[in-house]
Design a protein that fits this description.
Layout: H1 2-40, H2 66-70, E1 101-108, E2 111-117, E3 125-127, E4 132-133, E5 136-141, E6 145-150, E7 153-158, H3 159-162, H4 169-180, E8 195-198, E9 204-206, E10 217-218, E11 221-228, E12 231-238
Antiparallel strand pairs: 1-2, 2-3, 4-5, 5-6, 6-7, 8-9, 9-12, 10-11, 11-12
Length: 240
């Protein structure tokens, strides 16, 4: 039994080897035929393109590379946009000098006139509109307002602001002396004792400040005190 199986297996293996050899031989032949057909085929070359010369490069100008020189990050001095320094600050305007002192106002036939002085102690001047006093030019004046021109400025003021309301030193000392000094009052006259002025009723009035006791008799008159709605009444009645 084993002998027959061994013979069958050997026959099958031989058949497989033969079939594989035939298939490999056919494939090799087909490959050789494809190679011969491919290599033996001549491919026509495409037509060559027409030759055209390249255009000449443009001339090199400084304007073409100015950005390279102006934008060099390694050197700030190459930047043409240099920041300008700020403009100088103008000086402050000069202060306005002290205004003239106002002393009075007149309006005659020739127009209004202001009585002014440059300072409190300088002499008074009659100034008309358009005339100058010190550094100022009088533009207009009224009983309540006055207007000056100084350089390119126009100054409006009320006359009360320009009046000199200070008290002279001599008057101030005198005023302080008067306040500090005690007020002298003469002593009252001595009171008159006894009967005073005679009335139409035959009695006499009491003198102011009379200190005679009630019931005292002087020159035939007795002192009598009578109560009234308005206070005590003092009289000297004749003695009966």
């Amino acid at each position: 039994m084993n002998r027959k199986l061994w013979i069958v297996l050997n026959l099958a293996l031989a058949c497989a080897v033969v079939w594989t050899t035939v298939e490999l031989r056919d494939a090799w032949r087909a490959a050789k035929a494809h190679q011969a057909a491919t290599l033996g085929h001549r491919v026509a070359a495409p037509p060559a393109a027409s030759w055209q010369p390249l255009p000449n490069p443009p001339a090199v100008l400084p304007a073409a590379y100015k950005d390279v020189a102006q934008k060099d990050l390694l050197d700030r001095s190459r930047d043409p946009n240099v920041p300008l320094p700020p403009p100088p600050v103008p000086p402050p305007p000069p202060p306005v000098p002290p205004l003239p002192v106002y002393h009075g106002y007149m309006n005659l036939d020739g127009g209004p006139i202001a009585i002014l002085s440059v300072t409190k102690v300088s002499s008074h001047e009659a100034v008309r509109p358009g005339e100058t006093i010190g550094e100022f030019t009088l533009r207009s004046v009224s009983t309540t307002e006055i207007e000056f021109a100084w350089k390119d400025q126009v100054i409006h003021k009320s006359v009360d602001e320009l009046e000199d309301n200070t008290i002279p030193a001599g008057q101030a000392v005198a005023a302080r002396t008067e306040v500090a000094a005690p007020v002298y009052a003469p002593p009252p006259p001595p009171a008159v004792q006894g009967p005073g002025e005679t009335t139409h009723f035959g009695v006499k009035l009491c003198n102011p400040g009379d200190t005679s006791p009630v019931g005292a008799v002087v020159d035939g008159y007795r002192k009598v005190m009578s109560p009234t709605p308005f206070g005590s009444s003092c009289l000297w009645e004749p003695v009966q």
